[in-house]
Specification:
The chain is α+β, with helices and mostly antiparallel strands. It has a single domain (2-90), classed as 3-Layer(aba) Sandwich (Aminopeptidase), CATH 3.40.630.30. The protein contains 2 helices and 5 strands; from the N terminus they run ββββαβα. It has helices spanning 51-65, 75-83; strands at residues 6-8, 13-19, 22-31, 34-41, 70-72. A 5-stranded mixed β-sheet has the order 1-2-3-4-5. Helix 1 packs across helix 2 (75-83). The longest helix is centred in the middle third of the chain and has 15 residues, at 51-65. The protein is globular, with a radius of gyration of 12 Å. It starts with 5 loop residues before the first strand and ends in a 10-residue tail after the last helix. Residues 6-92 form the N-acetyltransferase domain.
Length: 93
């Protein structure tokens, strides 16, 4: 699932193509060596179909694979992490 997620450091966001030139994105910044997840967006026409959760899963898997520490300021990402305790070890703050 996370194979479709790509990091776009030039735009400080993770991207998941949805077809029809649509993207679900998770914006971040790097602060003190940690990835601060700021905001998640899914196009309105794809809202409620699970794409946000697929994006969150891919983002957390990529961050875990890369050994990153995470601050989830984005309410969606914070809520996702709370529902998936396997990502708790990544979280700071």
């Amino acid at each position: 699932m996370e194979s479709a997620i790509r990091d776009n450091p030039a735009m400080s966001r993770f991207e998941m193509p949805l077809g029809d030139s649509l993207l679900a994105v998770a914006y971040y910044k790097i602060e003190d060596g940690r990835v601060v997840l700021l905001h998640t967006e899914v196009p309105q026409e794809r809202s409620g179909l699970g794409y946000g959760s697929r994006l969150a899963h891919g983002v957390f898997e990529a961050l875990r694979r890369d050994g990153k520490r995470v601050i989830a300021k984005c309410p969606f990402m914070s809520s996702y992490a709370a529902r998936h305790p396997e990502y708790g070890a990544l979280l700071d703050g």
